[in-house]
Design a protein that fits this description.
alpha/beta, Rossmann fold, nine-stranded mixed β-sheet, 9 helices, lipid biosynthesis, ATP binding, LpxK, kinase, ATP-binding
Length: 333
């Protein structure tokens, strides 16, 4: 949990004290956007693809971006497109330019989410702090006709055609203030500029709903060995989550009837063997994002639970229509 997160649900003395800093943050965010968009338009030609799609959020913490990116890749592939994904590779130590990511890549070097996306989507994935540079490297090696930017909403150096903002349907936007007084990376007015708003959980007005489903546990030592979550019903288990909002994972397991001993860690946490072993022989369940980092140190008691995004069917149709419209506009120029 972010040190200030418990204050972000409302407006108390701490958030009021930080409000002047929040105003400064908002102003700097606006200026940075103006600067980067102007620089990108002036210095960089449009990427040679049919469309560039950005998936991101306004808030700190998990909102389901990674499952959405995986679903988007598969959905567009099913409809004849060849998407590729670019990401910053948050949490990875690799430096020195774009890096290709495969299911076998080291998450400590390229980040856990890119490895997960490469594993689940089957699409080429490249990471770099500069997403435009990552996109050019990707296109130099793969015949992709769409670029999807993971967590790229605030990376304005990358021009984009369509923006998808993910929203936590339960936490929403907290107290509506920008960092550090609230959870927002940009002012709420930014929502009026994006093309699609997708809520995990209960959607608000103008939002598409998306649920996350996962009913099977896979053994880290042997992913071919699976068990339905119902097989753990009524059983006491350790649950690990180093994601943006760990309670979402714990609640999913509880709804399946598991007796959960929760262990929450910071997002992108680098686990050590002592943090995932408890010496009591109980099963240990974790997210798929954590599993890509824990597999080398896991034992027979460790399992992970993949989740998949299930959006409102209307969202898929709307995105396809928008991509086709963008493609037509660019093809006539």
């Amino acid at each position: 949990m972010h040190p200030l997160e418990r204050h972000w649900a409302g407006r108390d003395g701490v958030t009021l004290a930080l409000y002047p800093v929040s105003l400064l943050y908002c102003a700097l965010a606006r200026l940075n956007r103006i600067r980067l968009e102007a620089s990108s338009a002036r210095r960089h030609p449009r990427l040679p693809v049919r469309a560039v799609l950005v998936v991101g959020n306004l808030t700190v913490g998990g909102t389901g971006k990674t499952p959405m990116v995986v679903w988007l890749c598969r959905w567009l592939q099913e409809h004849g497109y060849r998407p590729g994904v670019v990401s910053r590779g948050y949490g990875g130590r690799a430096r020195g330019g774009p890096r290709a990511v495969t299911p076998q890549s080291d998450p400590a070097q390229v980040g856990d989410e890119p490895v997960l996306i490469a594993t689940r989507s089957g699409c080429p994935v490249y990471v770099d702090r500069d997403r435009r540079r990552a996109a050019r490297a990707l296109l130099a090696h793969h015949p992709c006709d769409l670029i999807i930017a993971d967590d790229g909403l605030q990376h304005y150096a990358l021009g984009r055609d369509l923006e998808i903002v993910m929203v936590d349907g339960a936490r929403r936007f907290g107290n509506g203030l920008c960092l550090p007084a609230g959870p927002l990376r940009e002012p709420l007015g930014r929502l009026q500029e994006v093309d699609f708003r997708v809520a995990t959980g209960t959607p608000g007005p103008g939002e598409y709903a998306m649920t996350l489903t996962g009913g099977t546990a896979l053994a880290l030592a042997d992913p071919g060995h699976t068990r339905p979550l119902e097989a753990f019903r009524g059983q006491r288990v350790h649950a690990l989550a180093g994601i943006g909002h760990p309670p979402r994972f714990f609640d999913m397991l509880r709804r399946r009837g598991l007796e959960v001993v929760p262990h929450a860690f910071p997002d992108h946490h680098a686990f050590t063997p002592g943090e995932i072993r408890f010496g009591d022989h109980l099963p240990v369940l974790m997210t798929e994002k954590d599993a890509v980092k824990c597999r080398p140190i896991a034992g027979p008691e460790h399992w992970f639970v993949p989740v998949s995004a299930v959006p409102d069917p209307a969202l898929g149709k709307a995105i396809l229509g928008a991509v086709q419209a963008v493609d037509r506009i660019h093809s006539t120029r």
